[in-house]
Amino acid sequence: MKIVLIGIQGAGKSTQGSMLSDKYKIPYLSSGHIFREMAKEKTRLGRWLKELLNSGALVPDETTLEVVLTYLKKPEYQNGFVLDGFPRTVAQAEAFNGSIDHVVYIDVSDKEALWRISGRVAEREDETLSAIRQRISLFHSVTTPVIEAYRKKGKLRTVDGELSIEDVFAQIIAAIEA
Ligand code: AMP
After folding, report:
1. What is the pLDDT of residues 49-89, one digit of tens each?
2. Are 9 and 116 a contacting pair, CB within 8 Å?
3. pLDDT at 92 (0 to 100)
4. Is there a contact between 40 and 141 (Cβ–Cβ < 8 Å)?
5. Which pairs from 91-99 meet CB under 8 Å and 24+ separation?
6. Domains and CATH numbers, the chain
7. Catalytic residue among 13, 25, 74, 153
8. In angstroms, what CA-CA distances link 94 with 25, 89, 97, 138, 174?
9. How many A from CA of 163 to the centre of ligand 1?
């Protein structure tokens, strides 16, 4: 099963992604995690990525596509995956016409997301308020059209992400097994 999770930062994508990975025995892959690892490298690419990530800007499509599509070619992803954070732009979605079974949009308001993020201890260097605001704003301008495109294709499953972790998970399972 190939699942894509979409939602703003703080929506619970990584929590739900890990639970889905356990349930369906498919690997969980986060594009943000890949980029954060690459940003630790003391190379020009690493330093460039670190600055981009800390600002909350998106990595350009060309780089993102090269990195994520290379990852997805690995043998462990051939029987399915839960993908968090990709595709995030229409260009990425168009280039990634892989056979996705379900696109799950975890819908959480900006207010709730900011509330959740501000209540947890920042574990990441890129979790500054300005970077988070920038990511949320880019989500609305750049990722909303991706959601609409999947909706038109009939692949979109929207769940209310403001419920408890267990209830959100139950909604996702119900949506993808329907
Ligand atoms: P995330 O953990 O998904 O919030 O991603 C953290 C950061 O990684 C983002 O703010 C972007 O800079 C970068 N990133 C992750 N996924 C993508 C993507 N699909 N397209 C562009 N940039 C991305």
Report:
1. 999 999 999 999 999 999 999 999 999 999 999 999 999 99
2. no
3. 97
4. no
5. 91/61, 92/61, 92/64, 92/65, 92/68, 92/146, 93/146, 93/149, 93/150, 95/61, 95/65, 95/69, 96/65, 96/68, 96/69, 98/2, 98/72, 99/2
6. 2-177 (3.40.50.300)
7. 13
8. 27, 9, 6, 18, 27
9. 25
